């Protein structure tokens, strides 16, 4: 079901400063940047081989990411695993009794996705994504 690690997401206070730090320190190229109004975040990608590092910053003080950042500070937010068929993956997770954040796929920056609750995955938020081709 899982084909690869698509990205590791890191929540940051200042997207511009964080992009510059990752680019300068690690030599990673700066990739696509997007505002996701429905999730109240701005994201930027840094390609790293076949995977990505995704930097996320909230665009409102009320968003879930803003609350996460206020409570936990900057750092890893989630791991995104790519699947071929998000609907089949969701059905399989439901059948296995996984704790889900989403009952149906949502529109993510790179395709359709859903999240597994960290309570069922040893404290790690996991996104399962069917990437747009």
Protein model, in words:
This protein has 133 residues and is an alpha+beta fold. The protein has 3 helices and 8 strands, in the order E-H-E-E-E-H-E-H-E-E-E. It has helices at 15-26, 64-72, 86-95; strands at residues 2-11, 33-36, 41-48, 51-58, 75-83, 106-107, 111-116, 126-131. It has an 8-stranded mixed sheet with strand order 2-3-4-1-5-8-7-6.
Number of helices: 3
Mean pLDDT: 96
Rg over CA atoms:
15 Å
Report the biggest beta sheet as strand number plus sense, adding barrel if it closes. 8 strands, mixed
The proportion of strand residues reads 35-45%
**Biggest sheet strand line-up:** 2-3-4-1-5-8-7-6
Taken from the alpha-carbon principal axes, the silhouette is globular
Strand segment count = 8
- Helix/strand-derived class? alpha+beta
Low-confidence blocks of residues: none
What pattern of helices and strands is seen along the backbone?
EHEEEHEHEEE
The amount of helix comes to 10-25%
What is the end-to-end distance?
17 Å
């Amino acid at each position: 079901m899982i084909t690869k690690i698509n990205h590791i997401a890191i929540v940051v206070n200042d997207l511009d400063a964080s992009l510059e730090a990752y680019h300068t320190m690690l030599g990673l190229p700066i990739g696509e940047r997007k505002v996701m109004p429905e999730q109240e975040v701005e994201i930027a990608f840094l390609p790293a081989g076949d995977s990505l590092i995704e930097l996320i910053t909230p665009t409102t003080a009320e968003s879930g990411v803003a609350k996460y950042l206020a409570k936990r500070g900057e750092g890893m937010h989630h791991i995104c695993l790519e699947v071929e068929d998000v609907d089949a993956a969701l059905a399989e997770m439901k059948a296995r009794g996984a704790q889900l954040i989403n009952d149906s796929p949502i529109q993510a920056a790179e395709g359709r996705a859903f999240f597994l609750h960290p309570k069922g995955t040893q404290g790690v938020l996991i996104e399962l994504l069917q990437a747009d081709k």
